[in-house]
Specification:
Radius of gyration: 53 Å
Strand content: 25-35%
Number of helices: 12
Oligomer: single chain
Shape: elongated
Structural class: alpha+beta
Strand order of the largest sheet: 1-28-27-26
Number of strands: 31
Amino acid sequence: MTTTSVNLNSGINALAANKEKTRVAAAGRLVFKVYDLEEGSFKEQLDLRIGRIDRNYSSNDLAWNPVNDEILATGATNGAVVTWNLGIERGNKMDSVFTDNKRTVNKVCFHPSEWYILLSGSSGGVIRYFDLKSNKCVMSFVNKETSLGSIRDIQFNPHNMFMFASAADNGYIQFWDYRRSDRFLFQHLAHQEIVFSLDWHPEEIWLASSGRDKTIKIWRFESYEYKLHEDYTLYHIQSVRKVKWRPQRKYHIASCSQVDDNTVSVWDIRRPYVPFAVFEEHKEAPTGIEWYDQNNFLTSGKDGMIYQHVFKDAKKPAENPVGISMSPEGNLFHIAVQSGRGALQSSALRRPIAFFRRQERSAESFVTYDSNLVFYELQEDRFSEWFCATAQRYQLTGKPFGELCEANAKVAEELGRHQVAQTWHLLRLFFVDVSQLMPKVYSKQSSGTSAAEGATTQTHTEAEKTRTEKDNSAHCEATVSHHPAPEASHAPDSTTGVTDEESDSEMERLKWRNKMTPMDGIEDPFTLEDEDNYEGELGDMLDLSTNEKWTLPTEGFTHRHEIIDRDPSPDITHEGSRPSSPPTNNSERLDQDLPSSSHQLLASHAIDQAITKHRSEFDLSLKNRPFIRDMLNLI
C-alpha cells in the first residue's frame, strides 16, 4: 500500500471515520462528502450538500456515531447542531436541527457507548447535552465561577463512561459528570494560552492536551484524587491544533499545527524535541487526523485534500542525529555521530566464525547511536583590559597626524588587536598628504644650510645649474675635436637626402660623446649611496664647492635646442621676394644663422640630455635632421 489522496476542491474543517474504518466523511464551509475506502483508494459515496443550501450546511466540526454507523453530527458556524441519517432513502439526509446555541459550534462529540447522547461546545462557553431519542437539549453545562471563553474540544473518558473533559480558551481543562450540570468535578490549568485539543489514551490513564503555547502535554489522571500529574511535555514549533493517539503503540501520538506548519508529526512522548516521523504531503495547514490502523492514517487540510498516509513513506528526522546549540554565555555545543568505530574494532580482532539468527530491528523505535558531544568555550572577554591599555598608551596630540596614527597602530598590534591596527594605517593613508609618504630623494647640501636658506637661494641654484650644463657641453665638444671622424662618401642618400659623409660624421661624433658621457660610471644618479665616489667621478665636470647645493632637474626631458626667433614667412603674393633655392650645405647655413659658440653649445646640450634613455630616437632624429632643415628652408 502506498500514499493515496483525493481532492475535494474546497477547504476541509473536519474529518471523521466510522467504527469499522470503511467509510470517511469530510466537511467544510462549502463541502460535505462521504467516501468509501477500498484497497487504499477513495470512492465517493454521497454528497450531502443537495437541495436547498443554507448556513446549516456550513460545517465547523464533524463526528460519526460510534454505535450507529448511519448517524453523523455536524456543528455549523451559525450555531446549529445538525444530525444526518445516511439510512434515509430520500436525497436530503438531514435528520434533526438543534438551534439552542447562538454562536459558532466548535465541537460535537458522541458518547462512546450510548448512541443517543450528543454533546456540543460553542464559542459562548456553554456545553449542551442533546438527547437524540427526544430530539431536544436536556442539559447545559456552564461554569458559573469563571469565564471559560470558547469551548474548543470535548472528549469522553473511555475508562469512566460518566465523565468527559472539556478544553477552553482560558487554558483550563475541566472535568464533568454528564449526569449533573450544576458544577464541574474539578479543573486544572494545563496551558498558558488556549487549549485546542484533547485526547484520552485508549489503554493508559493518560490525557493528551495541546495548545497555542506550542506544547503537547501528557497528563496522568488520578481518579481517586481528581488530580492531573504532568508526565511528559513535547515541544512543537507552532501552536498545535489537533492530537490523536496512535493505536497499539503506547508512546506514539500524532499532531498537526494550527498555522504555518503544514506537516503531520508522529511523536514518541519519551523524546520531547524531535518527532519520530514526519509527513509533508499537505500544502496548507492540516485540520483532521483519523487512524485507520497502526500503520496507516487519514488526514485532511485547508488545501482540500484527504491523504491516506503509509508509515513506510514517512521521513524520520532522528535518523540524522546531528545537533548544535549555544548557551546564554556564548558557549557552543555540537553533537556528531561516531562513524566506523565498530567496524575497525571488529576487523582488528580474530575470532572464530559463528552463525546466529539475525534479530530484526523494530522500525517503531528510535535508533541508538554512539555520538560525541563537543564543547567550545568562549574565550575570556579582554575588552576592559584593552580599553584601559589603549586609554593610557594612545597618543592623540603633540605630533603630526601621520606619526600619531603609526604610534597608535603599533600599540594596537602589541595588544593583539590587528584589525584596529589596520584601521590606524588606513586613517594615515586617507588623511595624510601623499607627498609626506613618498621616500626622500637624494640631495647634497652643506651641513650649515637650513631649509629656509634653500628656499631663498632657489633662483641662484637654477643659474648655477645652467652654467654647469654649458661647461659640460663645452668640455665634451673639446674632447671630440681631438678625435677626427674617418672619411666617408659624399653621395647623398636617396631616401633622406643626407650624404654618407654627414651621416658618418654625426654617428662618429655621437660615439665619442657617448664614451665621454659622465653618466656611464653611475648606476643610478638619483639614489647615490656613496657621496665621495660621486664627487670623484664627476669632479672634472661639475664645479663642486662646500657651499653650493646640487639638486635634480625638475623636468624629465629638456629641450633639444633653444627656441630661436625666425624671420616671418614671406608673403605668398610677392613672388619676386621669395628666396632662391636653399644652400646645398646645410651645416654652412646653420653656421651662418648662429654664432659658433652657440652652435657648439646647442648640439652638445641636445645630445647629452637625450643620449642615455632615447638613443634610438636620437639616432633617427640625427639622421633626418639635414632633411628637415632643407624642408624648413623651402617655406
